[in-house]
Amino acid sequence: MTDYIKFVESKFMKKDIPQFEIGDTIDVQLKIVEEGKGRIQTFEGIAIARAGSGLTETFTVRKISYGEGVEMVFPIHSPSIDKIKVVKKGDVRRAKLYYLKRKVGKASKVEEKVEHAQGSNAREQAPKPREEAK
């Protein structure tokens, strides 16, 4: 029975979802249809939670709009989501960032993650020490 459910769900799952973590600033582009006309509306904010798995997986995005906190919960595989872009990587230590709801102003910001070069490329990219002339 579960194999059949997975088979049916696999038809509706999206393949082009970018890898994003909690704390990342993401830009969700939504397809909005009004009076027969379609347009794309963006919602940019910090991903504060992810829940579920498979077809029912959701993520919560929070932003500050005109001084008020706005949160939206999106199903990842929703057909109304056109594209998800990762704007900035965040450096957090929690799986859920609900504490950001109580923060105001700069305190509600998440630090940006700094990516370091890995492996042998790190040595090649590092500046070479100068040899002293004799």
Q: How would you describe the shape?
A: extended
Distance between the termini: 79 Å
Largest sheet: 5 strands, antiparallel
Strand order of the largest sheet: 4-3-2-1-5
* The top level CATH class name: Mainly Beta
Helical region count?
2
Order of secondary-structure elements: HEEEEEH
How would you describe the overall organization of this protein?
By secondary structure, this protein is mainly beta. It has one domain: SH3 type barrels. The protein contains two helices and five strands, in the order αβββββα. Strand 3 and strand 4 form a beta hairpin. The protein is extended and about 75 Å long. The mean pLDDT is 87.
SSE layout and pairings?
Elements: H1 2-10, E1 25-34, E2 37-51, E3 58-65, E4 68-75, E5 81-88, H2 120-125
Antiparallel strand pairs: 1-2, 1-5, 2-3, 3-4
Task: Name its key features.
134 residues, mainly beta, SH3 type barrels, five-stranded antiparallel β-sheet, 2 helices
